[in-house]
Predict the structure.
Amino acid sequence: MKILKDSWLVFDNEIALSEALAQDILSIAKKSIFKRGYFSLVLTGGKSVLTLYKILSKSNANWNKWHIYMSDERCVPIGHKDRGDQVINEIWLDNYTIPKKNIHFIKTELGLIEAQKEYEKVLKKINKFDVVLLSMGKDGHISSLFPGHVYPENRDVIIERNSPKLPMERVSMSYNRLNKASNIFKIIMGELKQPLVKSLLENKVFPADAVVGKREKIFIHNNAIPKKDKL
């Protein structure tokens, strides 16, 4: 592991990155459960986090005290291959010991408006998340919050009807809601992210910059670092 900037951790491979991230999450979970009796984790979709979820599925923890949320979801039917929760359920949650009542996913099968209302009710029951995971897209988007798009500032959950990535209709936690977190862990992985990392090193602003929580760490695969910036 190398430190490229403050709070930026660079790893030579996906396994090392995912293991370090898993250990941070498990450590925070243990402390949170000891202190308050529960641990809250917001998951993100995408390929960058699948190894992490596989590691967590084989780890030991007080799973009965874990509460799982989702940062965003695509508006497709349950079980659809494009749903973020589908692969997470397959590789981790379907066959694990976290109680179903502790898994709070976004019900986009209800339709955009009803899914938004339902998830806002869910989120009112929790003040602050312990950990929020966010995978950064090559355009700097996080969750389903995209560059150049304007979202209501007074909502915990927003509707996106014109995503630049298919499917176009999505439901997402807002910037404001994601920021209500003790720890924000962002993941950047893949050669296609090199222009993004270059821009971040030049201090250009992206949607991802709007969410930092109380503490922020950025976990970066070495393949996302432009050659001239590699340590």
User: Anything to note?
Assistant: The mean pLDDT is 92. The longest strand covers residues 181-188. The first helix runs from residue 14 to 36.
